[in-house]
Write a structure and sequence with these properties.
This protein has 1 helix and 54 strands.
């Protein structure tokens, strides 16, 4: 029961059926009005989506005749007898019922519960996968009811069937399968604005008991040549029964929809013959009315349409207060549980209505579109729960709006079974991306934290280094976290989790973000990669709130900023709005949250505060024109912020807040050296003066100092070292035996990681570094070296 235990007794009907021939006892239930709009909708045909360019399949192959995977009454599937409460049953899928033995990622099935002894819910998942609480079918005691479900196939070629409560027979028929790689069979999915294809109340009349009727489904929103349609079936009847749907001239020994007395609805796949005509057989003892609504179609070739990606998770849990009459909820789909934030053509949602107080239906549509007039799920008053699979488009920011189209209240649950992916452009591997450096908080008895390094190489490999002794740079141990089949890009984001483990987040070349964490603090081993989704245009940056919550930020191709707050129970990217950003944001600690700074459209610098609550302040335009790259930000006591950014002529510009938080009106130049890339800046912990470091157009590293603390005027640029650098510099704090220091890190043109540690006066004296006298205008020096070479790929 979608995670709720509800016990409602209902008079059970008795059934005998061989194959799907049946004899029902009559249930005295009046006809419930079909809660759908009357009339035929005329909508312009939509062009098919582009081919699934990802090369990982997801094309749908409808079976000519639905195949039986499980029937616990007769032993089909190797299992005989009703499934008990809390039971999990494993069944073979590959090689059964027309499904091939290999190259299958998921199956689209019809699951039916037959006369359960208690109200229950049925869940389907890949065999061996942990339970995740989502349901595929909710059914009352004594009922015979079906729903469709898209289920990923386990690595062993099987799926698991879980029964929540009571004992029930379970039937599973396969309608078709989705390929796991590009194959010469099948077709991609094209969603359509919901359109009514059939309504027997509109002059056609009810379908008599035991009779058939043939309908043409193509020619409108479903074009000729489509291999299958995904259709919402709505059945109105005074008696329960089942529908068989098959190509004209064929036969249908297995059910597509099992319905109850009253109104029953759910989506299902219908294979289409060349003429687009299908026959519906009414296998019940009473006439029925039937409404068919198109939700989309599958093309006839694997080179067109969107590919299916299974992803099972609960998207929406009903709050304590039900949805009122005609009330709506917005459900975030994109960016949740590893989904991309763009390129989602449609989502396959199992929608459940729980404890409705009146007859009605739920309608679903993209949150930024016109309200739907057709139902995705019909329900009856007093029903503990009713579910229906619906496929719907999503809004530009990835949301689906669901309305309670009834005069009563209802609780709503929404489970994602997968999505149809449009191709997304791959992100090129950034050459000489910056190194990320982070000194960790000491753990155990240690008094000085280890230093973690990470960068993405020029071939897309992810290298992570661990310097266990912060005084000995030659002790860095490198680990290659990528494999030959994966390639990443851009600067990684490093964070230390609350339990002391290091977490790394990196952008994959497929544009999505992935993370990986140590198995234990300071461990040389790492867990597997975790797909965070996102489909971003920029690599992620990270910040940590005052309570230790790690938040990732990234910018998409439309300039929207997204945040993934890891405090959330379900990892999900949240759209923070359109700031028109052109690259990554820099994240620093601010009063009450995190300050975000980035370059917007036209080269103006933008800043906002991400609050601890997860909300975002209004964006503040800091002005400027033609600014490029990623800004550097320094925070002084009182959260006074100074921003540095590369100007249109390459010269670094800066702007600071005053103690009241107001930024200066004008940008001022920091010297006259043109930089080749983005600056790095830090507040020197010894002298309290800001230092700025850049890679110049000569590809050498150069640095400059503030003339005095908080003065905002600058000395002269100096060359750090005559080494040709490939990457922009990174600056980071460092504490070791010589106290609080800071260091510069950059990759040379030969991919050597060079480090430069700001030398304290005592270090300078020992090393013979001249010009490091103590004083407000002293010119600090650096000790330099190369980190050990990482292992070959």
């Amino acid at each position: 029961m979608v995670g709720i235990d509800v016990s409602v007794e209902f008079e059970r009907g008795r059934m005998e059926r061989s194959g799907r021939a049946l004899r029902w006892t009559r249930v005295a239930v009046g006809v419930l009005a079909l809660v759908v709009s009357v009339g035929m909708a005329v909508i312009a045909r939509q062009a098919p989506a582009q081919a699934d360019a990802a090369g990982i399949g997801g094309d749908y192959v409808p079976l000519s005749t639905p195949g039986a995977l499980l029937d616990t009454r007769s032993g089909i599937g190797g299992v005989t007898g009703a499934r008990g409460p809390g039971s999990t049953t494993s069944i073979q899928v590959l090689g059964i019922g027309g499904v091939p033995m290999a190259e299958v990622g998921a199956v689209l099935v019809d699951v039916t519960a037959v006369s359960p002894s208690a109200t229950t819910h049925i869940s389907l998942r890949p065999d061996g996968a942990p339970a995740n609480g989502v349901s595929a079918l909710n059914v009352r005691a004594g009922d015979i009811l079906s729903n469709s479900a898209a289920v990923q196939v386990g690595a062993n070629g099987r799926i698991s069937v879980y029964n929540s409560a009571g004992s029930t027979h379970v039937l599973i028929d396969v309608q078709g399968y989705f390929t796991s790689s590009m194959q010469p069979v099948g077709g991609g999915f094209v969603p359509v604005d919901y359109a009514r294809l059939v309504d027997t109340r509109a002059g056609q009349g009810a379908i008599p008991a035991g009779a058939t009727r043939t309908f043409t489904l193509t020619g409108g929103v479903i074009p000729a040549g489509a291999s299958a349609a995904f259709v919402d079936f709505i059945v109105g009847s005074t008696e329960r029964g089942w529908l068989a749907v098959y190509a004209e001239g064929g036969s249908g020994p297995r059910a597509t929809v099992d319905f109850l007395a009253g109104t029953t609805s759910h989506g299902a796949s219908v294979r289409l013959p060349a003429n687009g005509r299908v026959t519906v057989a009414n296998n019940s003892t009473e006439p029925i009315h039937l409404a068919l609504t198109a939700q989309g179609y599958f093309t006839g070739t694997p080179s067109t349409g969107a590919g299916f990606r299974p992803s099972s998770t609960r998207l929406y849990v009903a709050p304590a207060t039900p949805i009122p009459a005609n009330g709506t909820i917005d459900v975030q789909v994109n960016g949740v549980n590893g989904l991309p934030t763009r390129g989602v053509a449609a989502a396959a949602l199992n929608i459940s209505a729980v404890r409705p107080t009146q007859n009605g239906n739920l309608q679903a549509w993209p949150a930024d579109g016109a309200p739907a007039s057709f139902s995705a799920l019909s329900f009856s008053a007093g029903t503990p729960a009713r579910s229906a699979l619906a496929v719907t488009k999503v809004s530009a920011d990835g949301k689906v709006r669901i309305r309670n189209a009834s005069t009563g209240t209802v609780f709503i649950y929404v489970d994602l079974q997968g999505y149809f992916a449009d191709p997304l452009p791959r992100v090129p591997i950034a050459q000489y991306a910056r190194v990320t450096v982070h000194q960790l908080t000491p753990t155990g008895t240690a008094t000085q934290g280890e230093v973690a390094y990470a960068y993405v190489g020029n071939y897309g490999e992810v290298m992570v280094g661990r310097q266990r002794n912060p005084n000995v740079f030659g002790s860095v141990e490198w680990t290659n976290l990528s494999e030959m089949a994966t390639a990443f890009t851009g600067q990684p984001a490093l964070a230390q989790l609350a339990d002391g483990r290091v977490q790394l987040a990196v952008q994959h070349t497929d544009s999505n973000i992935r993370s990986i964490s140590e198995t234990a603090p300071s461990s040389p081993t790492w867990q597997g990669w975790n797909a965070l989704g996102g489909s971003m245009a920029s690599p992620p940056t990270t910040g940590k709130l005052a309570d230790g919550t790690v938040v990732l930020f990234a910018v998409d191709a439309d300039g929207h900023l997204w945040a993934l707050n890891q405090r959330s129970p379900v990892p999900a990217w949240r759209n923070l709005g359109d700031a028109g950003l052109t690259g990554p944001v820099t994240v620093v600690v601010a009063d009450g949250g995190l300050r975000l700074v980035g370059v917007g459209a036209g080269g103006a610098v933008q800043t906002a505060i991400y609050r601890a609550s997860g909300s975002l302040s209004a964006w503040e335009d800091l002005g400027g024109s033609g600014m490029t790259g990623t800004p550097a930000v320094v925070v002084a006591p009182g959260y006074v912020t100074r921003v540095f950014v590369r100007g249109p002529d390459g010269v670094i510009r800066t702007k600071s807040q005053d103690i009241a938080g107001t930024f200066e009106a004008e940008w001022t130049a920091v010297g006259d050296l043109p930089a080749a890339g983005s600056p790095a800046a830090i507040l020197d912990p010894l002298y309290g003066r800001i230092a700025v470091v850049v890679r110049g157009t000569d590809n050498y590293l150069h640095y400059i100092w503030e003339n005095a603390q908080a003065l905002g005027t600058w000395g002269s640029w100096q060359t750090l070292e005559a080494s040709v650098m490939g990457s922009d510099p990174t600056v980071s704090r460092l504490t070791n035996d010589d106290g609080q220091q800071w260091m510069i890190t950059a990759r040379t043109i030969n991919n050597t990681v060079r480090y430069f540690v700001r030398a304290s006066p005592s270090e300078a004296g020992r090393a013979g570094l001249a010009g490091d006298a103590i004083g407000p205008t002293a010119t600090p020096r650096f000790t330099a070296g190369s980190l050990p070479a990482p292992p070959a790929r």
